[in-house]
Request: fold
Amino acid sequence: MKKILIIGALGQIGSELTPEFNKRYGSSNVIVADAADDKRGVVTDNVFEKIDVTDIHAIENAIKRHNIDTVINLAAILSAKGEQNPDLAWRINIDGLLNVLRVSVKYKLDRVMIPSSIAVFGPQSVLYNAPQETNLKPNTMYGITKVTGEMLADYYHRNFGIDFRGIRYPGIISHKTPPGGGTTDYAVEIFYEALKHKKYTCFLSGEACLPMMYMPDCIRGTIELLEADRSKLLHHGNYNLGAMSFTPDVLATEIRKHIPEFTITYQPDFRREIARYWPASIDDSAARAEWGWQPQWDLPAMVEDMLKEIAKKL
Reply:
């Protein structure tokens, strides 16, 4: 990887992946792009390109202009927003992905990162210790686009030799950027409300157990997979990646160890139905065996760090 283009760089993962890439590869070798203007000053050390992933010419022009050999496609409409606007979710998540794949073939890119999600699982999937290979029939538009994306990337790998890498990200928890419309957003919102108001009303039910990951593990895992020896990767993409699983009740209990007066109440909305058919835990043995994945953050360490960092912001 010599010249990297990150599409969707202003989102939750992209805004924290970019500075890590800068440290590792040099900011002059990392080009960042997003459909939105960089109004928040997220990108300060990199060349910024305004790119809508549904515009194949914009992607192609950036690749030619900067001599790109690696693309990280983080552009996506997430689960909750996808249910509110399924047509937009398809355009961004599938039409946009096809543009990236077509350009990757045309310019013979070295590597393409195409993230997936635990949303690929559905009512017929194994929901405890969900395996790498299982029945994937999700019941949300976001999940449908992610399964389709996995299949498209695998097709382009088999037929055109694209070296694509992908992770089925669990819920990602971060204190640096606001959540982006996902079903696991409560696990970020709860910390702000605990510190500001000592209470939180959750849109999931108290027993909704989901796989989660702290952002430092997410970024490290992404980089480790990108740099992994291709010859050792049997799956190439769609890796389950585990770290911790918990319910809102369990998270609230851990927060109360630091803020004893904190209370949580529940008003489940449509996101509870989305979460109902996502796995409570996942089997990430393929990632561990093929490229040495090991999470470093557990629930107590994550809660302590989140409270400390968000308190600084507030």
